[in-house]
Amino acid sequence: MPEDRQAEAQPLAPGLYLVATPIGNLEDITLRALRVLTSADRIACEDTRQTQKLLNHFAIRTPTVSYHMHNEAPRTVELIEQLKHGARIAVVSDAGTPGIADPGSQIAAAAIAAGIPVYPIPGANAALSALIASGLSSERFTFHGFLPAKEGQRRTVLEHLSRTGETHIFYEAPHRIVGTLADIEVTFGPDQPIVLARELTKLHEEFLRGPVSELHAQLSARQSIRGEFVLLLAPAAADAAASPRSQSIAAEVAALMQSENLTEKDALKRVARERGIGKSEAYRELQREQNRLR
Ligand code: SAM
């Protein structure tokens, strides 16, 4: 029998199961997720009423317990105690993958510390769904979760984003999206291409792609903005390549060692990161420069 069929036939092993649930379209639940949710002793839910709708839809009768940001610490202790006695506990969030901008990682860490097996049950996730259909590079990306609600702090985060060609992914609420677009326009300029993914996997799924100024104007003109957003932007790596650094790597490393009291290794790591190149590439270039000077 193939390995996955054998697993299906076995009773669920004791342990903690982090189960992804749909982000809109109920078809986006896996067969394995349904089996785990059906067979677990208990499902810890971010919102029991929300999850109950999903469980009712699939006729799953497993008991639920609340597990959210306000009771995460005491509930973790309680659930770990049950897991130590051989329980099978599933953790779900309201939508998507637990632990991604949602509760889940604290109990996973506690279970690992207690020697309890932790099983990921993969499935829907808004960030990755948006990324793969964005048309932006998915070779290197950073997921930042939500930007700060306050404009000043938001701009500071935006100003410090790397501009080395990687794709940045954010979650954003509908009532903040216009303000955030205004901040991106100021920080990156009106022509910065961005992608907005709204209502992913739902009936009114929408992808908006274009310069930030255009999408800002487009959303500002809407009477109401509904739905959940993923925002992606990829500052052009060409900027870095088009404006070659005036300083050599050796000079930048020396300046950092002096001004910030860094070791050569740490300074080189920083320079590599800022230039968007690997540490070994930066090291080889440093050696070449030093050899030229000898
Ligand atoms: N754990 C979830 C995941 O795996 O994607 C994310 C939970 S986070 C609290 C909720 C945010 O995810 C929303 O504010 C929105 O930015 C994004 N999101 C969730 N569902 C979405 C959807 N269907 N379309 C677009 N964005 C969504």
Can you walk me through this structure?
The chain has 13 helices and 10 strands. It folds into 3 domains: 13-124, 3-Layer(aba) Sandwich (Cobalt-precorrin-4 Transmethylase, domain 1); 127-233, Methyltransferase, Cobalt-precorrin-4 Transmethylase, Domain 2 (2-Layer Sandwich), CATH 3.30.950.10; 240-293. The N and C termini lie far apart (66 Å). The strands form 2 sheets. The chain has a 5-stranded parallel sheet with strand order 3-2-4-1-5, with helices on both faces. Strands 6-7-10-8-9 form a 5-stranded mixed sheet. It has helices at 3-9, 31-39, 48-57, 72-84, 105-113, 126-134, 151-159, 177-188, 212-220, 237-242, 249-259, 264-275, 279-293, and strands spanning 15-19, 42-45, 64-66, 88-92, 118-121, 141-146, 167-172, 193-198, 206-211, 229-233. With 294 residues, the protein is α/β, with parallel strands linked by helices. The longest helix is centred in the C-terminal third of the chain and has 15 residues, at 279-293. Helix 11 (249-259) packs across helix 12 and helix 12 packs across helix 13. S-adenosylmethionine (SAM) is lined by residues 23-24, 93, 95-97, 100-102, 125-127, 171-173, 197-202, 228-230.
